[in-house]
Amino acid sequence: MSDVAKLAGVSHQTVSRVLNDHPNVREQTRARVLQAIDQLGYRRNLVARALVTSRSRTLGVVSFDTTLYGPASTIYGIEQAARTAGYFVSIVSLKSLDASSVGEAIDYLAEQGVDGVVVVAPQRSAARALDSLPAGMPAVAVEGAHRSPVSAVCIDQVEGARLATRHLLDLGHHTVWHVSGPPDWLEAEGRLEGWRAVLREEGRPVPEPLSGDWSPRSGYVAGQRLAAIDGVSAVFAANDQMALGVLRAFTEAGVRVPEQISIVGFDDIPESEFFSPPLTTVRQDFGAVGRHSIELLLRQIDASGPVDVERLVVPPGFMIRSSTAPAG
């Protein structure tokens, strides 16, 4: 910075102000400093800056199974929001989200000097692990919000399922069958709750749900079972991948979609509009989840004292495509 100041003919403090986007710098002076930075190939020493400010400008993220569309999209949204805010991200991906694994991951990130952590906690076990966060560590949970006294952001899974179920009933279907996600996932629990609530409110039969594991294969197996049951005309699958399996099973059984069976998924993965037929589905705004989780975390980091626990719920969207039609 001293070299930059000398070349630009300004003080060391002026260079610092330019680097930190301080408004009280004349544009002509700012341009001269930036030109000197380019000429000298100057790069800020983040380690030295951390020693001075006690801030690493790095945030930790703890997640599970980033091959799944939801967690992977959530992490991407968090990373993009952190970068926009001027922070780096250090990610720890775990094979299981039990209390011990989450605790070890957070300890590891704390040793790296992260300024705060976001825990993507879609399972009950991970949500319970939030109870043992290190004292004083700024933290935000994604999905595990209602299980622990930690600020959190989540998508309204119950409302998403209500939208899907209501859409199918409004098309004239007598009831809606459900292919649910794994029982230990909070998202699966919320979608099951929303589906069941609408059927009960409308006085419709509540069929026994068929449990899947988020994979197309589990949806395919559930679809084979459903295709063998008389009177099934509408199915709500807890994610798009399982809906794809259900579509395949009905097609192989000679049941036409949507003429004989209507199917709704959840997530709105990029491929869903290219299914055959294009899939009606609930859309999750993972970008909004990322932005809000970083906003809540930075609010804690920048606070001079304790802050209130906040819970922010992102509303779902609904994409109507060609996999649903009025009951025949």
Automatic annotation (TrEMBL):
One of its GO terms (molecular function) is DNA binding. Residues 1-53 form the HTH lacI-type domain. It holds the Pfam family Peripla_BP_3. SMART domains: HTH_LACI (SM00354). SUPFAM superfamilies: lambda repressor-like DNA-binding domains, Periplasmic binding protein-like I. CDD domains: HTH_LacI, PBP1_LacI. Keywords: DNA-binding, Transcription, Transcription regulation. This is LacI family DNA-binding transcriptional regulator. It comes from Nonomuraea mangrovi.
